[in-house]
Specification:
heterotrimer, A mainly alpha (307), B mainly alpha (294), C alpha+beta (571), B: 294 residues, mainly alpha, C: seven-stranded mixed sheet, 19 strands
C-alpha cells in the first residue's frame, strides 16, 4: 500500500471520528447543569433573553447543532461565550505556542533523561543499577505535580531568588514549569524504553551479534536501540497531545497562559464554544500526530508495513 | 502442542516459575510487603487502639506542628493529621481498588468480546475505544463529576470509566492470539457457548498482562483522584483521601509543611511500591512480552 | 566490594534537600532597613526600574467594556481606561469632580445637571461631550446590550420600561444632553447615593464611533479609545495587561506613573509568591491565601480594614422544615461566629451578626444575631423538634473552595452539637452551584454579598420579594413596604431608621445567617505611595507613584518619632 493510500485511508477514518466527538461533546456540555450566563449577581430577565438570543441559544437544539457543525467544518467556532470579544480560534492559536513550548521542552527532557535510564536499566537487568535508576524514574510519577511545583518554587524561587516563581516571561521562567511537568513523563519513557530494550536484547539476532564478538555498547546502540526504542516512539503521540492540553496543574501554579487552563475553566464556566473548539482541536491533533507516528514507525521497524 | 500439553500436565508451572522470578526481584518483594502492611493498617484503621477520630475538630488546636500528643500535627480545623492520614489511606486504596475493578470488568469484557468475535463487531467496538481515547481525559472526568458530583460512587465510576480503554486494548490483543489455540477449538467442538468460551477459557489465560496492568492502574487512579482534588472534584468532606490531604496541604506548604509532608510521603511511597510491584510482576510473568503501553 | 547502598545515596540526598527546604519555610525574609526604621517588610523590597507599577489583577476579566463589566477585575481595568462624571477620592471614595467639574441638584433631589469640564478629550483626540454620556447610559439600558448592572439606572425616568422592552423610544428616557457640555439626568425618586453610581463602572462613558465600528471587538488594544488616565498598550489573555499614561487625560500632570502592568493570576499561592519575589508591587485583597494572614500581620506590608461585604448562609424557605420561622431562628442562634472568626480563621475576619455591613455613614446597625444555644434549642422545640428529634436531614451547599468547606464543616459540627440535627455538606462546582441557588434547589447555601456603593440599600434591597438576587423564595410584604418607603424618603435620618427596622426584620425572620464581615487584607510594597485601604476595595490608581527614596524617608520618620535630634542626611 502506498504512502498516499495509507494517509487517505486514515483521513477517511479521522473525519467521521471527529464528527462523533463533536456531537458527543456538543450534547454533553449542554446537558451539564447551569449555563454560560449564570453569575452570582442576577441579570435582569430582559437582558438574559437578549443574551440568549444574541448567541443563538434560544433556538431549538437541532438548529444550533447544524449551525455549529457547518461552522466547525470551516474551523470557525464562533466567539467564546465567556470572553465575547475573542474568537475561539484566536484564543486557541494564541495559547497553542505557549503550550507547545512548555510541552515540547518537558517531553524533550523526559526523553533525554528517560531513555538513557531505561536503556541502562535494561542492560543491567535485575541489578542494583536497574532498581536504582527505575526507582529515580518512578519517584517522578509518585510525587504529584501540585506538590513538586510548590516545593521547587519554595526552594529555588523564594528560598534563594534564583528563578522566577511564576509567569511565562523570559527564558529563566521556563525552567521550573518544565521541570515539574517532565518528571512524570520521565518515568513513563524510562519504563517503556526499558521494556522495549529488554524485549529486543533477548532476541536471537542480538545473541548472534554478541557471538560474533561485537562489543556490548555497539550491540546495544547500533542493533538493539533502533527497535527497542519503538514503544517510546509510539507513546510520543498520545503523550504530546496529553501534555498539550492536560497541564492544567503546572499552568495554574506557574500562571502559564496555555491551553490546559482554558479547557478546564471553559468546562467550569460552561463556555460551550471554547470547550468544543478545544476538544476538537485536541482530537484532531492527536489523530494527525498518531498518523505521523505510525508512518515514522514503519521507517524504524522494517518488519512493520503500512497496513 | 507440546507447550499446551505441558501447561495442562503441570498447570502451576507457569505460575511457580513466575513466582520464583518475582522473589528474586527484591525491590518488588519489599514493595509487596509494604503494600500489604499499609492495606491492613488502613483497613483496620477505625479499630486500631489509640487512633483518634479523624473528624473530631478542636478549633483551639488548629494547625499545630507535630508533637508527642499529635504525631503528625493537626490541621486547620484541629483534626489529628495522623488519624487523617491513616483513614485517608483507606479511602484512597478503596478508590483505587474499586475504580480499578470497574475498569477491569468493563475493559476485560469489552476487549475479550471484541477480540473473540472479530470482524465487524471487533471493528465497531475498537472504533468506539479509539473515539473515547481521542477525548481529552480531563474534560470527560469534569463533565462526569459535574453531572453526578454528589457521591463517592460516581467518583469510582468516573475514574474507572476512563481507565478501561487501555485494558480493553491489551485484552483484545491477547485474545486475538489466544483464540487460535487448539483448546478453544476443542471447547467449541464440545458445544460451549461463545460466552462460556470467552469467560471460562480465554479470559483466565489473559490473566498475566491483566494482573500487571491492574497493579499499574491502581496508582494511576489514586494519582488521578489527587489531581481531581486539586480541582475540587475529588472525595468530598468529611471523608478525606490522601489526594485531598495532599492537595490541601500543598496550598499551605510555606506555613504548615507537615500537612503535606506526611500525607505526601504516604501517598508517594504507596504509589512507588505499586509501580515497582507492577513492573516486577510484568518481568516475572511475561519475560518476553513487553509490547504494552505504559 | 560494591557498596550495597549506592543506589540509595542519590534519593537520600534529594530527600534531605527537600526536607531542609521545607524546614526553612516560612520563608526567609530580609528585614530591610531594620536599623533605620522599626518596620519589617516582607520579601524583596527593591523598587522597579522605571515608573512602572505592577499588581495582580486576579482572574482574567470577562470583559472590560464598562457597560458590560460585572466583576472586580473587569472594573479595575475599566476604571483605568475610562472616567465618569465623578471620580472616587482615593481615601474616602467620596465623589469628586471627574469629567464633570460641577453639578446642580434640584431641591427635590430628582434632577441632576452635570457640567462637563472644558477641553476634555478621548485618547484619539475627539472631545468628550454630554451626548457621549447620554449615548452610553442608553446603551446600558438598551435590552440588546444585556448589561448586568442596568438596574443601577432604573431610577432614571422610564429607564426600567425601556430596558424590559416595553418602551421603544429612547427619547422618553430621562437623559438629556442640551448642549455638548451639559448632561441632565431626571430621576423618578431621589437617590441619596446617586453620585456614587456615576463613578461606578457601568456609568463610565464609551466612544460611540468605536463601538459602532468594531462591535464586540472594540475593546481590543488596537481599537480601544478611552477618556481615562491610562490607555491600553498590550493585552495577552490569561497573562497580563499593560497600560501607559494617557497624555490627553485632563489631569495627566498629576499622574506620576508611566506604565502599569496587571497580571491575571488564578492561583492564590502563585500570587503570594510573586509578591514576595517582588514581581508585583501590590497584592490586592483576597488574592493571597487567607491562612497566611496571621503570618504576614507583623509586616508593614500588611494593610487591612473593613470591607463592605458579608459572608452568610442563605436559607431556602420553600420547603419544610426551613419554611418554619422558628427553625430558622434556631439555626441562626446556634452558630458560634466568634469561634469561626477567631479560632478557625485565626482572627483574619470579624464575626458579624448583621446583614448590612458596618461603616455606612449615618446608618446605625440594629443589634445583631447572638450565639445563644439555649434559646436556639427553645426555638427548635417550639417548632416541634425538641432535641432535634424527627428533624429531617438538611444539606449545606457550598461551591468548591477550601475556605467554604472548613466553615461548613465547623457549622455542621455546631448544629449537630447544639441542636442535635443531622446535617450534610454538598460541594458543587461554581456553575452547578449558581444553578442550584437560582433554581432554589438547596436547603442552606453559602453566599457572599459585596456592596457596590456606600449605602445599606445595596444589601437590603436584595431581599425584596422576587428580586433576582434574593434566591431564597422568602417574601414578606412588610419588608418590601419598608424598603420601598425608604427609597422615597428624603430625610436621611428617617430613611435610615426605616432601613434599620427592615434589617431587624430580616435578621429575625428572614432567610439569612450572617457569619462574618469581610475585611480587606492586602499587601503593599514600601515604595508604593497613593494606595489606600477603602471599604469597597476600590483603588483609583491615578495618584499612585513609586517612591525610590522610601528607605530614607522611613528612616527620617523613625528618627523624628524617637525624638532623637539626629541630623538627617537629605540627598
Amino acid at each position: 500500500m502506498s504512502l498516499a493510500g495509507f494517509i487517505l485511508r486514515r483521513v477517511l477514518i479521522i473525519v467521521p471520528t471527529l464528527w462523533v466527538i463533536a456531537t458527543l461533546t456538543f450534547f454533553l456540555i449542554r446537558a451539564a447543569p447551569g449555563g454560560p450566563f449564570q453569575a452570582e449577581r442576577d441579570i435582569p430577565a430582559a437582558a438574559k433573553e437578549q443574551l440568549l438570543h444574541k448567541y443563538g441559544l434560544d433556538q431549538p437544539l437541532h438548529r444550533q447543532y447544524v449551525h455549529f457543525l457547518v461552522n466547525a467544518a470551516r474551523l470557525d467556532f464562533g466567539p467564546s461565550y465567556k470572553y465575547p470579544q475573542r474568537q475561539v480560534r484566536e484564543i486557541i492559536l494564541e495559547a497553542l505556542p505557549v503550550s507547545a513550548e512548555l510541552g515540547g521542552w518537558a517531553l524533550l527532557l523526559a526523553i533525554l533523561v528517560g531513555v538513557p535510564i531505561g536503556v541502562i536499566a535494561a542492560v543491567r537487568h535485575n541489578s542494583t543499577v536497574d532498581y536504582a535508576s527505575m526507582g529515580i524514574a518512578l519517584a517522578g510519577v509518585s510525587i504529584p505535580n501540585f506538590v513538586l511545583g510548590p516545593v521547587l518554587v519554595l526552594g529555588l524561587a523564594l528560598g534563594i531568588y534564583l528563578l522566577p516563581p511564576a509567569l511565562w516571561h523570559g527564558p529563566e521562567s521556563r525552567v521550573l514549569p518544565v521541570l515539574t511537568l517532565s518528571t512524570a513523563y520521565v518515568a513513563y519513557v524510562a519504563r517503556l524504553a526499558r521494556g522495549g530494550m529488554l524485549e529486543v536484547l533477548h532476541q536471537d539476532y542480538i545473541r548472534t551479534a554478541r557471538a560474533k564478538g561485537l562489543a556490548e555498547p555497539v550491540v546495544v546502540m547500533k542493533h538493539a536501540f533502533r527497535l527497542g526504542i519503538l514503544p517510546v516512539v509510539s507513546y510520543i503521540g498520545p503523550a504530546a497531545a496529553r501534555i498539550l492540553m492536560g497541564s492544567i496543574v503546572v499552568e495554574s501554579i506557574f500562571s502559564v497562559p496555555g491551553l490546559g487552563r482554558y479547557l478546564v475553566n471553559a468546562a467550569f464556566n460552561r463556555d460551550y464554544t471554547l470547550v468544543l473548539g478545544e476538544v476538537l482541536f485536541y482530537a484532531g491533533f492527536l489523530m494527525v500526530l498518531n498518523l505521523a507516528i505510525d508512518i515514522a514507525y514503519t521507517r524504524l521497524d522494517p518488519r512493520v508495513e503500512l497496513a | 502442542m507440546a507447550e499446551q500439553g505441558l501447561a495442562s500436565e503441570h498447570p502451576a508451572s507457569l505460575w511457580s516459575d513466575a513466582w520464583k522470578r518475582l522473589r528474586r526481584n527484591r525491590a518488588a518483594v519489599f514493595s509487596g510487603v509494604f503494600l500489604a502492611w499499609i492495606s491492613v493498617t488502613a483497613a483496620l484503621a477505625p479499630w486500631l487502639p489509640g487512633m483518634r477520630d479523624p473528624t473530631a475538630q478542636d478549633l483551639k488546636l488548629a494547625a499545630t506542628p507535630p508533637s508527642v500528643t499529635h504525631w503528625f500535627g493537626t490541621d486547620e480545623l484541629g483534626r489529628d493529621t495522623f488519624a487523617r492520614v491513616i483513614h485517608g489511606g483507606r479511602i484512597s486504596l478503596m478508590v483505587g481498588l474499586v475504580a480499578t475493578l470497574v475498569s477491569l470488568i468493563i475493559g476485560v469484557s469489552w476487549g475479550a468480546v471484541a477480540g473473540y468475535r472479530g470482524g465487524k463487531t471487533d471493528e465497531i467496538m475498537m472504533r468506539i475505544v479509539d473515539i473515547l481515547y481521542s477525548l481529552p481525559y480531563i474534560f470527560l472526568v469534569i463533565l462526569l463529576l459535574v453531572f453526578f458530583s454528589r457521591s463517592i460512587i460516581m467518583l469510582f465510576v468516573a475514574l474507572g470509566l476512563v481507565q478501561w480503554l487501555t485494558m480493553a486494548r491489551i485484552v483484545r490483543g491477547q485474545v486475538l492470539s489466544l483464540k487460535q489455540q487448539t483448546f478453544v477449538e476443542a471447547a467449541r467442538a464440545l458445544g460451549a457457548t461463545d460466552a462460556a468460551i470467552i469467560f471460562r477459557h480465554i479470559v483466565p489465560n489473559t490473566l498475566g498482562p491483566v494482573i500487571v496492568y491492574t497493579t499499574l492502574t491502581v496508582p494511576a487512579i489514586i494519582l488521578q483522584e489527587a489531581f481531581l482534588s486539586f480541582l475540587g472534584l475529588g472525595v468530598q468532606p468529611p471523608d478525606a483521601s490522601w489526594g485531598t490531604l495532599v492537595s490541601d496541604g500543598a496550598r499551605v506548604l510555606a506555613l504548615f509543611p507537615w500537612l503535606v509532608i506526611f500525607p505526601g510521603m504516604a501517598l508517594s511511597l504507596t504509589l512507588f511500591c505499586f509501580n515497582f510491584l507492577g513492573d516486577g510482576l510484568r518481568d516475572a510473568l511475561d519475560p518476553h512480552d513487553r509490547r504494552d503501553v505504559a | 566490594m560494591r557498596d550495597p547502598t549506592r543506589g540509595l545515596k542519590l534519593p537520600a540526598v534529594l530527600l534531605s534537600v527537600a526536607v531542609v527546604v521545607c524546614a526553612c519555610a516560612p520563608a526567609r525574609e530580609a528585614p530591610v532597613g531594620a536599623s533605620a526604621s522599626r518596620e519589617r517588610w516582607f520579601g524583596d523590597t527593591s523598587p522597579p526600574a522605571g515608573n512602572v507599577f505592577s499588581f495582580n489583577l486576579g482572574a482574567e476579566p470577562e470583559t472590560y467594556d464598562p457597560s458590560l463589566a460585572a466583576g472586580q477585575p473587569d472594573g479595575r481595568v475599566a476604571r483605568l481606561l475610562f472616567e465618569g462624571l465623578t471620580r472616587e477620592d482615593p481615601q474616602t471614595l467620596e465623589p469628586l469632580p471627574g469629567q464633570a467639574y460641577r453639578w446642580d441638584t434640584s431641591p427635590d433631589g430628582r434632577t441632576y445637571v452635570f457640567h462637563l469640564r472644558p477641553g476634555i478629550r478621548w485618547s484619539d483626540g475627539r472631545p468628550v461631550t454630554a451626548s457621549d454620556f447620554r449615548w452610553t447610559w442608553l446603551r446600558v439600558l438598551r435590552p440588546e446590550t444585556a448589561s448586568r448592572y442596568a438596574g443601577f439606572l432604573f431610577q432614571v425616568v422610564n429607564a426600567e420600561t425601556f430596558n424590559n422592552g416595553t418602551l421603544r423610544d429612547e427619547n422618553q428616557v430621562g437623559l438629556e444632553a442640551p448642549d455638548d457640555s451639559t448632561f441632565v439626568v431626571r430621576l423618578t425618586s431621589p437617590v441619596p447615593y446617586f453620585l456614587y453610581l456615576t463613578q461606578f463602572y457601568t456609568c463610565l462613558p464609551v466612544p460611540r464611533w468605536v463601538v459602532e465600528k468594531h462591535g464586540n471587538r472594540w475593546t481590543l488594544p488596537a481599537h480601544i479609545v478611552g477618556n481615562g488616565a491610562f490607555t491600553l498598550d498590550y493585552w495577552r489573555q490569561n497573562n497580563r495587561f499593560e497600560f501607559v499614561k494617557n497624555p490627553r487625560y485632563w489631569d495627566a500632570s498629576s499622574v506620576r506613573l508611566d506604565r502599569i502592568v496587571a497580571y491575571s493570576i488564578d492561583d492564590l499561592n502563585t500570587s503570594f509568591n510573586l509578591y514576595k519575589a517582588g514581581v508585583v508591587d501590590w497584592c490586592p485583597s483576597g488574592y493571597f491565601p487567607s491562612q497566611f494572614i496571621p503570618y504576614v500581620r507583623p509586616y508593614a506590608d500588611y494593610r487591612h480594614g473593613d470591607y463592605q461585604a458579608v459572608y452568610f448562609y442563605s436559607i431556602c424557605v420553600t420547603k419544610p422544615p426551613l419554611d418554619n420561622v422558628m427553625v430558622r431562628r434556631a439555626l441562626k442562634c446556634s452558630v458560634d461566629r466568634d469561634a469561626i472568626a477567631n479560632d478557625l480563621l485565626k482572627g483574619s475576619r470579624r464575626p458579624w451578626g448583621n446583614f448590612a455591613p458596618s461603616g455606612y455613614p449615618g446608618y446605625d446597625n440594629p443589634p445583631g444575631i447572638v450565639f445563644d444555644p439555649v434559646k436556639a434549642r427553645g426555638y427548635l422545640a417550639k417548632a416541634g423538634y425538641p432535641g432535634g428529634k424527627g428533624f429531617p436531614k438538611i444539606t449545606i451547599l457550598i461551591n468548591t473552595s477550601e475556605d467554604h468547606r472548613r466553615i461548613a464543616e465547623a457549622i455542621q459540627a455546631m448544629w449537630k452539637r447544639e441542636l442535635g440535627i443531622p446535617v450534610e455538606i454538598e460541594n458543587q462546582e461554581w456553575g452547578s452551584y449558581l444553578q442550584s441557588t437560582t433554581a432554589l434547589k438547596y436547603d442552606v447555601a453559602r453566599r457572599s454579598w459585596i456592596g457596590d456603593y456606600l449605602d445599606p440599600n445595596t444589601f437590603l434591597a436584595c431581599y425584596l420579594s422576587g428580586d433576582g438576587n434574593n434566591r431564597t423564595g422568602w417574601s414578606d410584604p412588610r419588608y418590601d413596604a419598608m424598603i420601598r418607603a425608604a427609597a422615597r424618603e428624603m430625610d436621611p435620618a428617617r430613611r435610615f431608621e426605616t432601613l434599620r427596622k427592615a434589617e431587624m426584620l430580616l435578621l429575625d425572620e428572614g432567610p439569612v445567617i450572617p457569619i462574618y464581615h469581610y475585611s480587606t487584607n492586602e499587601l503593599v510594597k514600601p515604595y508604593v505611595r497613593g494606595i489606600y485601604q477603602t471599604p469597597l476595595d476600590i483603588h483609583p490608581l491615578t495618584r499612585v507613584w513609586i517612591d525610590r527614596d522610601w528607605q530614607r524617608r522611613a528612616a527620617s520618620v523613625a528618627a523624628r518619632q524617637s525624638k532623637v535630634a539626629a541630623p538627617v542626611e537629605i540627598r
